[in-house]
Amino acid sequence: MDDTPASNFLQTIISEDLASGRVATVVTRFPPEPNGFLHIGHAKSISVNFGLAEANGGRCNLRFDDTNPEKESTVFTEAIEADVRWLGYQWDGEVRYASSYFQQFYDWAVHLVEQGNAYVCDLNADEAREYRGTLTEPGRNSPYRERSVAENLDLLARMKAGEFAEGARVLRAKIDMRSPNINMRDPILYRIRKAAHHQTGTEWSIYPTYDFAHGQEDAIEGVTHSICTLEFEDHRPLYDWFLDHLPVPSRPRQYEFGRLNPSYTVTSKRKLKQLVDEGVVGGWDDPRMPTISGMRRRGYPAAAIRRFCDMIGTTRSDGVVDVAMLEFAIREDLNENAARGMCVLNPLKVVLTDYPEGKVETLGAPRHPNRADLGERELPFTREIYIDADDFREEANKKYKRLVLGSRVRLRNAYVIEADEVIRNERGDITEIRAHTIADTLGENPADGVKPRGVIHWVSVSEGRTAEVRLYERLFNHASPDRGDNAFLDHINPESLSVVQQAWIEPALADAVPEQQFQFEREGYFVADRYDHSVEKPVFNKTIGLRDTWVDG
RNA sequence: UGGGGUGUCGCCAAGCGGCAAGGCACCAGGUUUUGAUCCUGGCAUUCGGAGGUUCGAAUCCUCCCACCCCAGCCA
Length: 553
Prior knowledge:
alpha/beta; Glutamyl-tRNA Synthetase, domain 3; CATH 2.40.240.10; seven-stranded mixed sheet; 25% helix; RNA-binding
């Protein structure tokens, strides 16, 4: 895709490391905790980590940071692996698990204790908080801080053996309770958890914290550049402290970049879960969700998501990225690759009075206006057709480029027609339009020089098929729904989903395969639903509308 | 009032002492059997603010301001 690595501060660092010989081969890693579904923010992290490795001839690992058994499960590890693969990336070797290093971590904890750099603390959570101090006040030493090495070793072994209740004791590093960086105030290394772990079962009753695990995981795997988001910046001194005090096999370095915050959406796991739990959306992969599986179901091409991640760059500043940029990337990809078809969402029947009853004329139409390689499709034309009700007016000004009584419009890929008459029901609603074709207008302009006002799409009444079409709009009607705590639910767009039960599609569209993407001409991009679509019962999801610059109605 | 960060066009973002890239959005034209695409042009005398250094500053120095992160036995 890209021949030159994107210019950003991380690439600059890597280039220097490679040039100086500090690093021979770049190794990065994408380290999600398997406690939820991946979202657009993770896509950015994936793009950064895999992208940097790829651009520099290195490797990238997929590693599950599974240090907290209570919230994790294999349904998430499986979903995450699928998402990463779908995005188009392949990790180096086997999937890694922090949990497979548990014994090593424990040995290192013993090492720390032996060196006098860690101790078992009996303070409970509330007491520990109190001793920790505040942002502006230093903390105080735990009364258990000066236990002997022997006692600490004994207590740690018994913690591991499961002798103590959850919360009864923890293992802490002995650093500095007066440090202005709260992470350095004797951070917790191990806590007691009796929960079963999805990988290690009941083997362990103590589990390492993120801080005591992450840098060592990187060191074990030979990760050279450990890239995370800005909120971990304060943890870097601790990350380095462990590497300084442990006999680790390599020396990784941590770098941080600014998290991706797209407008009109939320990315906090808690809030996404709330949307699912409260039934605001249909599930984690609802097409309106910013999850990778949601975007996939919505029809966003993986390549467009990757392109978007490249477009926005990688920096240390935090800001809100306009979703218009994501939308641009999606349209750019789909415009290039999606086959065209016609679908009438709001049907209005047109009878071509001069056209023979029962005649079916098979017209050919290109699948793509400027990609001959995609070939043609057959397009049956008949006396009765459907057009969209929005494409007809009894009268209109010159700017209305659709069908108007007494004037002409081109039927896309077919004839120019002229509307003659409107048929109404008892209530006065228009139920049908009578029109006639203009002779010899297949691929030709009318011989009399009277040009049609515009071009509209259509579907044959007898040859067309019906489909369910799900129309999606933004889930939120506020650019920053994430602000505030629960206020985000007040910004839900009540019209984020509307379903057209019986739209009319041209027959060629019924052959669609799940996840196949199309442009329904003049309407937008649509995808055959990954789960619900079938040839017998076609179901399409609206991915995104066409860019619309029509100003006057 | 502790520590760590960030501030360049509406949004994202290059730039790293030599005279403000690019993309998105927007606006104006052209082409067009999709009001799409495509093409052309426009869009920061100014870089959070104020001082200073220098022939020359978005880039260096000083002070100030705004915003973000940190007080889970979460990651």
